[in-house]
Amino acid sequence: MHSFLDLVFPEIAISEYRLANGLKILIIEDHSLPLISYCTFYKVGTRNEKKGITGISHFLEHMMFNGTKKYGPKTFDILMESNGGYSNACTSPDMTVYYQEFPKDVLELIVELESDRMVNLSLDPLLIESERKVILEERSSSIENYPPGKLEEELFALAYGEHPYSWPVIGLKEDIEIISRENLLNYYSSFYCPNNAIVIISGDVYPEKVLSIIEKFYESIPSRELISDLSKLTMNREERRKKIYQKVEIPSFMSAYLCPNVKNKDIFVLDLIDTILAYGKSSRLYQKMVEEKSVAIKISVDFSWKLGPSLFIFYVQMRSGYLNEDGEEIIYEELNRIKKEGISKDELDKAKNIQIIDFLRSFKKNISKAHLIGQLEVLFGDWRKFFSLIGEYKRITQDDILEVIDKYFFEGNRTVVHMIPGN
Amino acid sequence: MNFLKEFVKFKKISLSNGLRVIFLPRKNLPLINICLLTNMGAVTDIQEKEGISSLAIELLFKGTRKRTAFQIANEIDSAGAILTCSTTTDYSIIIGEFLNKDIRKAFEILSDIVLNSIFPEKEFEKSKKRRIDKLKEERDNPSYLASQEFFKNLFNSHPYGNSIIGRIETISKIEKNEVVDHYWHYAYPENSILSLVGDFKESEALEIIKEFFEKWNTNEKSEFDIPKPSRIKGRKIILMDKPKFTQAQIRLGNLGFYRGHSDYFPAIIANTIFGGSFTSRLVSEVRIKRGLTYHINSNFLSFKKGGVFYISSFTETKSTLQLLKIILDEMKKIRENGCFDEEIKKAKKYIKGIFPLKFETNENIALLLAELEFYGLRFDLITNYYSKLDRVTKDEINEVINKYFDPENFCLFILGKKEIKNDIEQLGEVKIFKN
Description:
Shape of chain B: globular
Number of strands of chain A: 11
Distance between the termini of chain A: 51 Å
Structural class of chain B: alpha+beta
CATH topology of the largest domain in chain A: Cytochrome Bc1 Complex, Chain A, domain 1
CATH topology of the largest domain in chain B: Cytochrome Bc1 Complex, Chain A, domain 1
Strand content of chain B: 15-25%
Oligomer: heterodimer
Radius of gyration of chain B: 23 Å
Strand order of the largest sheet of chain A: 1-2-6-3-5-4
Radius of gyration of chain A: 23 Å
CATH architecture of the largest domain in chain B: 2-Layer Sandwich
Distance between the termini of chain B: 51 Å
């Protein structure tokens, strides 16, 4: 087994600034194409919501494209496209990200538009109503009419109980239907401010020049007092299970273990466990479930870093004629096998190699570099985590894997939802 | 367009067995990207054996004279590499990404699976069963289902309507020897193109490629003739009853044009204005003004000998007719009044602005170079992209609109509830599709 631990990474030049109002600016230079990626991270997401206004972070994300006092509805997109750029956004449990890619000569316009909607959003009542319908259609296509979306919604609800991560990012239907202008305005005033945002500019730029444009447009926006919000969650000690019957063709299930947040270094070990179990066709579970025993069409693992408690989720689509229980048993057997026999040095090195080269892949695009740096800043409070990430994986030992598997992968820490064909 | 200078430097050579090889060194990351394209797509599927091309290419990873399926997967994963395959209507590709220090390993594994696959019986049976179950699962995917059935009905029995991954009834009928014969019928050097982009030394790469690919035996030329697809005349409306879905999926369109057709530049401008961008007419009317959907777009799709222009959307069941009427009205409007100078200016700028993104990653460039060669397109299509776009006139755009945006002749496929049949009949005769 060769090792990539000595792989030479390309240089990455990042300049960091902070304005007096608290806005953090990170600039990543790359002159290979005449393009710029511009990302604005707001530290707000599902975790800041409560029952009654679930999905409001995502609702507000949609409203951010619906006009400000200065620029009317849709002007943002019109100006964007007529200058040769595109724009989009995404909301997640911990953050809301707005991003654009455009030719380098239109930077000033983008800075103006993005800074304007940080503080001057209109929230026109008529547009709120039409956007509400759009969001309900989005929800319908991604949850009600999409079996994996439905399964995930049920899993989060059961696993997270009262914690805000228990509802989907898009929100519950009954809340989307009633979120008011006042709710949106309050939420906007609470979380959209320079001291709760990070701007990342990646591409064909020169830091000094960019900074002067940023100062021109953002400097006058006042900072605000931020409310602390993070809900706590105590680990359950009893397995939670649910069966749902749907008109689907094949059985499927999710089985998830409650895992720690980003403050705990176990997350890096969990990344390697994820890789060992389910990355690629040579992974343990793919081999067992899809190849050897041939009971499943698909097995995947999702473990993502979160500010709050995370889930290590196994998702399996069974072959027709097999039961979800058959799939579950194979997963638990494999976890027990690792607990008993451990893993070899080669297997550990292979997992580390995969993690490291995956990290290298994030250097391919301006936008993926900006996203990575922004996520590190939001999750770890410091984008410089970038430089120590490889070290985190490097130092993991075979014993660490065993210890972490023992610590989290036990029945009482598990939530399981089965989707079964039927009425 | 300065950034394109770097890309013009690619080199093309032919090996003694006819394999065309295209190189482009780019030293941005210590990686190489490979693309091996073979002229074997859904269009070459044997009649009533739809899905055979994609099944054949997938089986290359299931065992060779030197390696078991697990060994293939394990060597790729252990190198932190990616080696995967996919099939389109026109061709199949194997694409790979390796660390540059593994360049030899990359071509050794690639040549092993392409030249030495043994298609083990057991693996064949497993892959076939898995494919059938995958197709069962897709029955729960309304978007996939609607697109499949739309293309099938638009093209009638023409092979451009073939489903890439096949259908349950066609996959069940495929025999192992048919897959093997099918693969060797199309997989030979003169029928394939190999492209390589990334951080490598040209002379070294060429030596390695020769070592592993010059032994690839050439074959009798496989001739297959794709008949010209014919346009739908009148309104062909089909409703597939799926009572379990609360939304209706909508696909509406007719034939477009082949890759490399002179309508390309005016057509992409027309499409950007009509439904191909977030500020297009369709998105504004349907999503922004009325909130009827989360997604609507229009698209030109081009193959070697033909193409499609179509609109794709979904909406709450009860809004289906309303949404369809808007689509048809917008088509009528743009045909009658043409598009405005402002819109044309904006569309040109938008297309130009996002164009460099196609060149951001080496895997995109590797595929682009292989595709240009496959479709017989010249690289000046890329280098002169901006000037070709600039030269397009308003008349040319309106001509294309009249040709392809046709509110009277189209195939409309709706996947929804049969209760809406009466509503939809306002647009024409509706056939209920049995599944």
